[in-house]
Records
---
Amino acid sequence: MRRAILAGLALALTTASVASAQAPTDPARLFPREAPIELPATTGLVRLALPAAVLEGSRPDLSDVRIHDERGAARPYLVESATRRGGDATIYAITPTEVSRRIERRSSLASVYREHLVLTPPPQVPEGRWTLWLDSAQASFVRDVVVFEVRDDRREQIAEATVFRMQAPLRDRLGVELPRIAEGARLEVQVSGEGGYLEPNASLIVLTVPVEPPTVALPLTEVARTRRDGRTILELARPAGLVPDRVLVTTGAANFFREVRVLDLSAGAAPREVGHGSLFRVHEIDGAEWVAIDVERAVGDRLRVEIDDGDSPELEGLAFEAIVRQPTLLFESDGAPVTLRFGGGRAQAPRYDIQRLVGTRLGDRLLGAALPEATLGEPVANPRFDDGPALRFAMRPGRTPEVAGYTDVATLLVEGATEGLSRVRLPASVLAAARDDLADVRVVDGDGAQWPYLRGADASDPIALAVEVDDGASSSETLHRLTPPVEGRLERLELHTDAPFVSRAFRLYGVDAAGERSLLASGRLTREPNDPRPLEVTWAPRRVTRLELVVEDGSDAPLEFGEARGWIPSPTLYLAAPDGSYSVLVGDLEAEPPRYEIESARELVLSVRAVDATVGEATPNPAHAPPPEPSWWEEQGLSSWIVWAVLLFAILVLGLLTWRIARQPADGEAPPPPEGPEPPSASGPPVRF
């Protein structure tokens, strides 16, 4: 009996564990495959190479790949694309043997600072690719660089480039590619630009022995073969996760020379050539063989290979492999067990902060660093995988809002949301009709029931501004009126001008619907020469009907803005709803912010692959009914009622005082007799003592 009780208890616990693991908010339920990650003994950043099984079962962009800890929480990672990188990098710091500087004055533009450096490369520099690296303590700069090789009495220009460093976002280019110079030659470097002397630190970087990226060879399955007009035509299945760089051909033929085309076959599109070349082999000559075709990126699920045989027989024993560069993941290990889950195509690409290092100098150093290697165990089916719509648990209509309270409505169309999630971006006309906090946004179906959504990360959308110039406002100032197509909350202004150099003070005002004018920003509009970026002004978001930009021109001609754009802050809404037609309601000033229970499953919802919904422009809501005019007593606030109460109390007190005064006798008049029995009359019987 005791054993039966224990067995029943164990079964109940197991059932509860499985039910918990398959909870609708469990992120692991999105991925059909998983594999344990075997970690090195050390902690910190580690590198995991993704094997063929993961690449075959995942999307090409690896958006449906996650690393989960034992609690199911995602572990951020950086995707290292397998690219051809340089081998060993040798850095030689070079101290200039000569330095000269001068300032070149210009009539109307800022001064140009010129620096001349003479550098002597170290002897016995190894073979490789040379890069002159010019660093500086300045946080931001743009400089033109010209490099000359000086040998004996000969001086020859060998390189010309622009080096720069810019902030927010951080990006830079500090290297100048050089050819290898002769032994004993010198380098003369001319650096010029505005904003002061650069005073660069010079280094020579030599990259040797380029390293080819690691690759994996994956077989391509032949699904069809025909022979027509002297050609062998084969169709090969391409798994969704494979983006081959080459197609490798295997054949038992000893001697051949064939022209080959590779075409991408995508549903609904014409075949597109992605590669062509010649395959050959001469058995009697050592090394006389080439059996691979380089291909461009393919998007279809099949590849067509056309081999021109001419009058020769078909190549015997044909087989094909896809050569794929092997990507790796960099993530932080704390020694606790983690699992790689992948596949299904149901998750959207994660937005990990560490991925932003890619393309920066710090990221290049990180990717080139020697890190401990993790390995992946054997992939197996994920027991927690749920093959139904990922948001099936959340796709339920909610309460029906009072449609009459909303002033505007816009159409919303959801198509292809197989997982139940769509991405909604509200146009400017909808944002203009909505409240600033968007608490009045509701998505309803044809029956009027609302559907839940989550508010995602904030973004900004540009809108064109009409430009009107009033150059008669002042003798030294120009007023530019910038009007958006609809009233809205603006937070940034972008101005395009052909002026090569700008340095002028400005004031920016916002005008609201009531005509009130308020200062939004002030400062200087600046642009350095050779800087193609537009002028920008930012401020705290403010709802305006137009902007008024006052530019202090002084004695210069007014600036001409060929294009002006404003930026509207707008969050992304993630709607949990099936395909269909919906409406977006906005404009209810009394609406309470919505509260949906999917907020508790935010991490899972935002990890699901979403499709873009189509939102129309806002139009007046035909069902809108303005609230009835309040009665006079409903219009009175608390302060008004207090005043009325005080006045009423004062009236009562005054009335009481008036009544009491009215009862008192006038001067010289006998007071009225007191109430009670009348005293005896004077003619009555005498009183005896």
Note: The two ends are 119 Å apart (CA to CA).
---
Amino acid sequence: MKRSWRERPTGSLFSRLWRPWETLNPLRRRGRSINVRRTVGIRDLVASPDEIEVRPERRWRIIGGFFVLLLLLLIYRLFTLQILDYRTAVATVDANSLRVSTIPAARGLIVDRYGRPLVTNAMTTEIQLSRAEATLDPAIKGTLSVLTGVSISAINAALNNVQYNPYQPAPIMMNAPSDVVQFIKLHPSEFPGVTILSVARRSYPNGGTVGSQVLGYVGPITGAEIAAHPNQGYQTDSQIGKTGIEAFYEQYLRGHDGTQTLEVNAFGNILGVAKTTPPTSGDTVVLNIDEGLQRALDGYLAQQVLLDRKTFDPVSHRYPQAVNGAAVVLDPNTGAVLAMSSFPSYNLNSFVNGLSQKTFNSLMKVGAFNNYAIQGLYTPGSTFKLVTATAMMQTGILSPNTLVNDTGIYVVPGCLQGGHGCVFHDAETYGNGLVNLPLAITVSSDYYFYNLGYLFWIHQNKYGQTAIQNVGHQYGLDQYTNVDLPNEVVGRIDSPAVRKQLHALAPKAFPTVAWYTGDNIEMAFGQGATAITPLALADAYATFANGGTRYAPEVAAAIVNPSGKLIERYQPRVLGHVYLPPSVRGPILQGFYGAINNPRGTAYYPFHKIANFSLSQYPLGGKTGTASNAPGMEPNSLFVGFGPINHPKYVVVCVIGEGGYGANAAAPVVAEAFNYLVAHPIRPLSLKPKLTLPTTTTSTTSTVAHAGSTTTSTTSTVAHAGSTTTSPSVTKAG
């Protein structure tokens, strides 16, 4: 009997669909018609309801478990965001909505020893433009250009300058005229995004020409400078001291910048100010410098250099080039720098008002940015005789009373080189006759010191090969003076070791490595490869003047905060000593006195002509120096003076590169400086400078009315009221 589908044996769906043994069985296949095709319906694929066990509770458990898992994950995520990562989340949100900009602090003042201002701050009006508004409404640039006269290309350059903070307006015009400022204030709707800001900029009460190289200037910070001052709050638009006191005391002068937290929208547009921390003005640097003396010394040096260029030299039969010069006044008892001048110079206001590339190049060409007092290397000539005379007196190689016959021509005893290197001439070929040490210094007898150089060389087994150089080292001529100014260079004293070093550095310029008797003779009177800075020379003579204590020259005296409280007081720093008992110092001092007061002295004529005070009541000592340069060049002109001679208060040095004879070019500057010092003695230091309390100035910003957005920026500022080194070439003296 044929059974229906329902009556067929039950089994799994898989077993009914897949029965390969039935297909392979020939008996079963034989019982079917080949032409009959069996169909498969839905009932073959799906079991009947009564064949499946219904279990709904399992489904609910699976679905419920899934949603419980989702809930747990949600709770964990909320816990992580609100508890574990709370600070990070808040910082992220704030970073998306807040921007912090810097409010530059007004730099501290620089005042002289009496509190008179040398560098102050002046409030100027600056016009700035919002970058966001300039992007939304480019027409504002044209409107602003027509009003201010600033070209659109210059405005675009300011807006694209990455040096400025992108969330602060870019400066378009400095020192804006009052009529332009008033027009913008009266028509704010025409100048959306334009800011009128009061800013503090450097100001120079003395016109910007007094002590320029000492004071230095400030300028925009560079990437290298930011890297050199990590974690000190500098921004890409910060100003930093570049040279002089501005650079050396940057940490005190710069102050502490304030901050301004700005609210911005998703497009970066400024919505308002959330928080402002006012800046703190920098500290005041009180200098040892006397402003009046500094001004006078600057004038004396510049005037003499220009005069020297117009004065015919009857010996060389040419006009001196007088390429550069320097002058220094020191207190020999403390090392305080009372004045320091360098020529050529520049006006500090140029860096405030803007220096054209042409002007900058011309100043660079003449070396105006060099401070030749600490960066100029000059052959010392006869001023070096202080060192040789001290070595003589310390060793006793010759008695100060021993007479030497100065014939004007010194022939090296036993010289085997013929005429070359065997004969040395005095500057005055007629000679000075019989001279002892004091008179040799007074008349600047080269012959006498030629002989000393020879004696030290032939007795090197007893006194050493570098007996003179060792004393020069004690005086600090081949060391840094440690003055509180940047970029000081170090001098050198010619010696066998120095010759080798120079030859290794520049074989063509210094081809000779060997050291002969003639080299020791040249070195003994300040020639050869010896080269020193004017400040090092002044410090050496200050050491002699005070009896043997070498102090570090100190330009700054103290640091005072804006409220007048003393922060730092710089005391004299002792660097070394030179053995100068009266028996050693006396004969040398006698020679320095004679140089100015003895009619035979090399500086007698210029001082008795220029000095407007009594040299008998205010006696001075000094030494001229005329140092030979390369053939065809005028010699360097040097003079060192100190006084009053028994209790020296001042040491004055002047050096003029290629200036000619020391008595003709350098000595008049020193004489004029003493005219000022006698008439205006240096008074005690004042550590309570008159400081004007800082004031806060708020900028006026026009409201932006474009595309439905508003950009407002309010900035407050606090303000006080108010190196290339030149080394001349040197050859043997004539």
Note: The two ends are 149 Å apart (CA to CA).
